[in-house]
Amino acid sequence: MNTPFDPETPRRAGLFSRLRSSFLTGLVVIAPLWLTVWLIWSVVGWIDGAVLPLVPDAYQPDKFIQDRLGLDRAIQINVRGIGVVIFFIFTIFMGWMAKGLMGRSLIRFAESLVERTPVVRSIYSGIKQISETVFAQTERSFEKACLIEYPRKGIWAIGFISTLAKGEITNRAGTSGEMQSVFLPTTPNPTSGFLLFLPAEDVIELDMSVEDAAKLVISAGLVYPNAKDPASPE
After folding, report:
1. Is residue 230 very low, low, confident or very high in pLDDT (cuts 50, 70, 90)?
2. pTM of the model
3. pLDDT classification of 4: cutoffs 50, 70, 90
4. Of 103, 139, 154, 208, which one's alpha carbon is 20 to 30 angstroms from that of 111?
5. Residue 225 belongs to a domain
6. 101-118 burial, b if ≥16 CB within 10 A, otherwise e?
7. In this structure, is residue 119 part of a structural domain?
8. Is residue 22 part of a domain?
9. In which order are the strands placed within the sheet that holds 204-205?
10. Partners of 158 in the beta sheet?
11. 163: domain range?
């Protein structure tokens, strides 16, 4: 007979607790894989939906396969990825053309027409600047993660260094040294945040990669990168 002073024997987990633990473990294993497959499948379908309507009806992939195999048109064939291949080949061809003399002349002529259109001019110039910054920039583009004191002294936040501040920003800031453009992401959605211009001496560059810093931001500090010793945060 146990007395109130006897140590309690550990209770065995019930069936519901074991099922819940197994379900959560399986969810951790399946969720990243399922979300990755779903995202790739959705992006491929979106590109196919934008590209395939431009393909002549006789060369539609599903109808082409139906004709080759002698299948009834009532049989639906979902061929995903053909639009991605067409878009990839077309983009390479356009890039090759744009590098030539004729391609550059056509681009200048088309841009001159766009510049004369009031509304389209603003939209096109904004999209072009973003595209050139993301895809064609030869300087630094989120190549370094950093630490900055934000929103006040003594509180540190992770940011991403984009470029050196130039032009009117540096002239009006009144600083003697260089200024850096730092993107400060929000948690857990790093696509939104703040653009800050800071003196270079106030920006501490980190050794961790941009990818590891992004994981730290997205996970709200739960996934801490450390290539040397994963068991130690130092």
Report:
1. very low
2. 0.49
3. low
4. 139
5. no
6. eeeeeeeeeeeeeeeeee
7. no
8. no
9. 193-199, 179-185, 156-164, 144-149, 204-205
10. 147
11. 144-218
